[in-house]
C-alpha cells in the first residue's frame, strides 16, 4: 500500500513540476484567418477544367519550408481555380497548370529569409488537343524573419505572406484573363 501511495505522490509531484515549467502565456495555436478569393467567378466557355501540378525541386542550399505553413502556397494555387473559375460548357477544355508553388528558407545572420514562389497558367485547349490561348501569373514574395520566433508567431508570419501572395495571384490572373482570354468568357450559370 505504501508503494502505491509513494508512486502516486511522485507522479503527482513530477506532473506539477513539469506544469510549472510551461509558460502560461505561450500561444499554442495561432489565429489563422481562412483564405478565400472574392469577386465572383470567371465563366469560361469550356466543358472541363483540369488541374496539373508540375514536380518541383528546390534550389541548392535552400530548405523547403512548405510543412511550416498552415495553408501552403500550393494549396492557394489549387484553391484559386476552384473559387474563381466556372466551366459553362463549350467544345474546349481548360488546364490549370501550377508550374511552381513552394517556399524555401535560407539562414541569415539576423534570422532567416523565406522566399515564396507561385506560378500558374490557365491554358485553353481545343477538342483536338491544340493550345488555343492562355493566361498566367507569377507571384514572388520574400519574408525576412528576425531572431527565432516561437512556432505560433512563425506560422502567423508565414500565413500573412500567403495571404499577400493569394491577393497578388488573384489580381494578376484577373488582369491576364481579361487581357488574353476575353473570347473564352461566357455567361455565368
Explained architecture:
The protein has a single domain (43-184), classed as Double Stranded RNA Binding Domain (2-Layer Sandwich). The chain is 33% helix and 32% strand. It has three helices and seven strands, in the order H-E-E-E-H-E-E-E-E-H. The chain has helices at 2-21, 73-84, 151-180, and strands at residues 42-44, 48-53, 63-64, 85-87, 93-108, 111-125, 131-146. Strands 2, 3, 5, 6 and 7 form a five-stranded mixed beta sheet that branches. Strands 1-4 form a two-stranded parallel sheet. Helix 2 packs across helix 3 (151-180).
Give a quick rundown of the structure.
By secondary structure, the chain is an alpha/beta fold.
**Major sheet attributes:** 5 strands, mixed
> What's the CATH class label?
Alpha Beta
CATH topology category name:
Double Stranded RNA Binding Domain
What integer value in Å does the Rg equal? 24 Å
> Uncertain spans, ≥5 residues at pLDDT below 50?
18-27
Name a few traits of the molecule:
single chain; 189 residues; alpha/beta; Double Stranded RNA Binding Domain; five-stranded mixed β-sheet; two-stranded parallel sheet; 3 helices; 33% helix
Give the topology, please.
Elements: H1 2-21, E1 42-44, E2 48-53, E3 63-64, H2 73-84, E4 85-87, E5 93-108, E6 111-125, E7 131-146, H3 151-180
Parallel strand pairs: 1-4, 2-5
Antiparallel strand pairs: 3-5, 5-6, 6-7
